[in-house]
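Example complex used in Figure S2.
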Amino acid sequence: MQKRTFSRKYLGIPYALFLVCFVAAPLIVLFYYAFTNGEGAFTFRNLTGFFTDPNTLGTLFYSFGIALVTTVFCLLLAYPTAYILAYSRLKAKSVILMIFIMPMWINFSLRITALKEILTWLEGNLAYHPFLNTVLGMSYDFLPFMILPIYTTISRLDGALLEAARDLGAGERGAFLRVTLPLSLPGIMSGVAMVFLPAMTNYVVLDMLYNSTYIMGSLIGSYFAAYDWHGGSMIALILLGIICLFTLLTDGAQEENTRGGTLL
Amino acid sequence: MTMRSLRGTGGWGKTRRMDATVWAAGRRIQSVCLAAGMVCVLSASCLTAEASGGKESSQEEITLRVCNWEEYIDLGDWDEEETIDLDSGDIIGENSMVEDFEEWYYENYGVRVNVEYSTFGTNEDLYNMLTLGDTYDLVCPSEYMIMKLLTEDQLVPLSEEFFDSRDGNNYYINGVSPYIRDIFEKNEIEGKPWADYAAGYMWGITGIVYNPELVSLEDASSWKILNDPAYRRQVTVKDNVRDSYFAALGAIKSELLTSREFLEDPDYRKNLEAEMNDTSEDTIARVQEYLQDVKDNAYSFETDSGKADMVTGKVAANYQWSGDAVYTMDQADEDDFPLAFAVPEESTNIYFDGWVMLKNGIGDDALRQHAAEAFINFNSRPDNVIRNMYYIGYTSVISGGDDTRIFEYADWCYGAEEEEEDVAEYDLSYFFLGEDAEDPKGRYVITAPSEQIDRQLFAQYPDQDAISRSALMVCFDEEQNRAINQMWINVRCYNIYDIPVWVWCAAGIAAGFLAVIGIRRIKR
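Predicted assembly (788 residues):
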């Protein structure tokens, strides 16, 4: 009689099933639709169509622009905050950190609705500044994702390195630029990835803040609403490709930086 | 590193029927309490049925899969105070319409029917659900989707029995408004009249809800308000191709559509319908130009925020469906903020949501078809019509036939109190008797406060004048759809040729900078 042993790898079965059903299967469907036409025949036309249509390229550019400005804005807000927080001797540090994280506990569409009222109060008529409002809305939504990783990296920095820098004659500014900033780059990178990627597709924020220009997410939606599964799938696939590329790049940069960090 | 996905996408998706949501939410709380009571009642009725031996075929149970718009049927659980006290008796929704139907069907036909009720958000969603393999027996899309399904041979015709006016349970055929019935019989698709396949449910027209303090009736009575610089960033527009296309057609053809020559042509209705369904290349190009202008001028395209923005005063005017217009004005009235409704002079889009039976659900199952048709009839029973109308705010296609309760209900809602002095006569005979019928005794004239003439009453039951310039928007074929969708994408997308030169320069400099850093790193 064979002895039944419980192997630890059985624990992976639920997740493997999950992967097959909700990651692999949809991807296969996505690929199928992206490379077929209405008759089900194989075609590259969806792909070439994407890169020859001024609208899809323009939308890609516009989404990229929104994501870029949002990321830069978040970074400018988040870095000083995280830096001050990490080095402050406040006892209430965790409380302050909590204040930044707290909005994440509230449903984001509720938060955007509240922001809409505040912006209306400030600007009078929201519709005059759709781009600005979108950037503000997205920054409001994604800021915690930028603060947290940066805060974590900075607060884990070895204080001895800074002391060494000062001993060797670096001023406040020099020590920051040559030690703290390069060493916190991994945190910045993961923050950037966490803000930039969702900002490219989060069309709900645009919609709620009355920006009538499509970004990638809404463009895919409009293809589906017009029953064009093939064109929509191709756009989704290309977006997936861009995200993969971006993730690889930031991961590469992070590795390089951790190596650079140990060398320092 | 893992990528964090978005947490929920919130309220995306156009819903024609969002308005009852808040209202219904309040009711849902009560429903928890009532549910327990209902279980007792239901099980009790089961027991009695079994004890009495049941009727002939009580063993078999029919499952009826119904798919309707979200919040588009009475879900019951009304407050005592919400009772509609007509002279002919009180009407109140205790149970949901679906439960009432199941009970009614068993009482009348001795067969248990189990309704699997589900909902959809847009016509396109429903169509995609059907294409992806969902099976339903009875669905309630808008007229153009009905036409599309009919062209694709997906529908089962209504049975002859359904049109037998001698059967007392055939509330639909005995109650449908002669005016609507006429439209359903006259409009054909591929030689088949709609009426053979579709039974109407709710209907309405499109128009402009406006704040009379900021917008004149004259300005609100033209589609041109959407790009009127006088209302820059103060008007919201429906965020869907068909509605926007219709409004744009009205605006660019405004001069023609309001010219005396056009209006007095004996073929006016036919010409109007042709003009409002014009998809020639040249027209589409002009519509695109117009809508681009609208995009730069309007407050925004909206999916369902338009009603709230109107009530809170963020915008001065709002392109709206009449049923939602009623809701918007009701809401604003609660804050003592009077709004009004106008129907553009050029034309208005008349629309219908109707029940159709699907081939892949019903098949040849006569029993199921009978239950489906009974469901339509039950929802056409005057008291149920009133319950649905009260609950969802839209206007039913049912006028009640010999039963006067629906007119009574309209009068109950909008009629003037006896002591009121500033009143006006509002003639609804076209709806209750037919477009060409005479109403010498004025049986279907409501004496309403005169302000109602351009408010809720007007939106709920548009007057003959507005109706006379209504046009149906047909279902476009694949090629037309492609052209119109492309036009819409052109309007909504940022065009790469619009990128200013300085952005290209900045991007070039940034790319160069990054390249230099990269090269230096590699060298090191």
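The CA atoms of residues 278 and 293 of chain B lie 20 Å apart. The first strand of chain B starts at residue 61 and ends at 69.
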